[in-house]
């Protein structure tokens, strides 16, 4: 057994601890002066600890921001503050606040001492407020600054295409597309070096209807990934990647379109649905014999389990995209990336599209609050829900989602 590869790559279905989402309303911020059209940091709102078994734990700091009559909260970890300051130093080293060092991290204590976290969060808020106050408009409204405070996204390094936000996956993806993962851990990094690949894990994207059955993107109620990791072959809703912060364990997650005449067709959807019935719940298995026999021609036995790329190849064989005579275990994550040296033997004139990174970060502007220029005369009850923080029902169905299990036997 070579399960150590998967175990070292990730045991990633962990929960986020100390996840306290602030719920301020516009009443909580002081009224904005009529002339306050400049970007401002109003201070720290809260902190939260994100913890994963493979990538460790860290603290995120929630900052309350204002621009004109709108306020919002964005979350960043200490490392992101350091990177942001480094970018600012490259463009404006003479600005005193930019040149001021960040508060020390105290690596031995920063996750164990509430006092240290509170002191650091207050210092970070003070530093950011000074930067926005002292820097010129060219720096305050630069792409780096706007992305840092949650008003936009930057193109991922090495990407040739702009990312697609996770909420818009239905506009570019379809059931059967490949999902590529670049994990933030040592063993996956070694795997990528050995295989000369940008990716160390793959999955298959599927859309599901309200009965949790695989469907076309046009009929979808939600979206998810079918993957085979150390937990076995399971369905993971995209919502869980957002709510449980699973995406933070990856440097990049991208989708590649499987482009062919059967894309989204009823016959293809039916085959994918039947395939789901046959594989969900199967164990993870990567053995030496699979590696040695992966290039051979002949029948295969997949009843004992899969590894990630074997599962994807098995799915594509089920919809007649890959030839049946080649073992599914002969395919690796590198084979499904754009930089693969070996061309996949796709049938029916099928091709793979470009790698499109998925942006899982919810823009802070999605939770903008309107702050009136004069103190309001209405009380909280009179305001109702129209002006409350986070009134969107985007996460209203989170309680119905699996925390990492298969959708149901209807899939």
UniProtKB/TrEMBL annotation:
Transmembrane segments: none annotated. Residues 23-33 have a biased composition (Pro residues). It comes from Prymnesium parvum. InterPro entries: Papain-like_cys_pep_sf (IPR038765), PX_dom (IPR001683), PX_dom_sf (IPR036871). Residues 39-156 form the PX domain. PROSITE patterns: PX. Residues 11-34, 379-411 are annotated as: Disordered. This is PX domain-containing protein. GO terms for molecular function: phosphatidylinositol binding. The lineage of its organism: Eukaryota, Haptista, Haptophyta, Prymnesiophyceae, Prymnesiales. It comes from the Eukaryota.
């Amino acid at each position: 057994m070579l399960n150590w590869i998967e175990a070292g790559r990730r045991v990633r279905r962990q929960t986020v601890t100390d996840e306290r989402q602030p719920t301020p309303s516009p009443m909580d911020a002081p009224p904005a002066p009529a002339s306050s059209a400049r970007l401002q940091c109003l201070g720290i709102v809260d902190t939260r600890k994100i913890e994963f078994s493979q990538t460790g734990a860290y603290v995120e700091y929630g900052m309350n921001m204002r621009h004109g009559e709108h306020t919002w909260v964005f979350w960043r970890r200490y490392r992101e503050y350091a990177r942001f300051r480094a970018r600012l130093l490259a463009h404006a080293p003479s600005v005193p606040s930019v040149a001021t060092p960040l508060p020390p991290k105290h690596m031995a204590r920063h996750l164990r001492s509430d006092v240290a976290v509170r002191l650091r969060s207050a210092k970070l808020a003070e530093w950011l407020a000074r930067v926005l106050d002292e820097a010129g408009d060219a720096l305050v409204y630069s792409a780096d600054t706007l992305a840092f405070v949650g008003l936009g996204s930057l193109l991922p390094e090495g990407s040739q295409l702009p990312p697609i936000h996770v909420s818009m996956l239905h506009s570019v993806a379809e059931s059967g597309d490949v999902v590529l993962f670049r994990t933030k851990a040592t063993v996956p990094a070694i795997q990528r070096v050995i295989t000369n690949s940008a990716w160390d894990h793959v999955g298959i994207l599927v859309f599901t209807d309200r009965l949790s059955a695989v469907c076309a993107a046009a009929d979808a109620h939600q979206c998810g990934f079918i993957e085979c990791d150390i937990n076995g072959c399971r369905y993971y809703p995209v919502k869980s990647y957002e709510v449980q912060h699973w995406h933070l364990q990856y440097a990049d997650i991208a989708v590649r379109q499987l482009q062919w005449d059967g894309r989204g067709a009823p016959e293809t959807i039916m085959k994918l649905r039947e395939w789901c019935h046959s594989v969900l719940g199967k164990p993870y298995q990567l053995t030496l014999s699979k590696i040695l026999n992966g290039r051979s021609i002949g029948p295969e036995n997949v009843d004992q389990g899969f590894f990630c790329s074997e599962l994807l190849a098995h799915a594509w064989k089920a919809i007649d995209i890959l030839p049946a005579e080649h073992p599914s275990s002969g395919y690796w994550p590198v084979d499904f990336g754009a930089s693969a040296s070996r061309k996949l033997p796709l049938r029916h004139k099928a091709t793979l599209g470009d790698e499109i990174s998925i942006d899982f970060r919810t823009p802070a502007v999605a939770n903008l609050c309107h702050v009136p220029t004069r103190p309001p005369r209405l009380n909280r009850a009179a305001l109702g829900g129209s002006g409350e923080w986070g009134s969107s029902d985007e996460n209203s169905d989170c309680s119905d989602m699996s925390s990492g299990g298969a959708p149901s036997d209807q899939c």
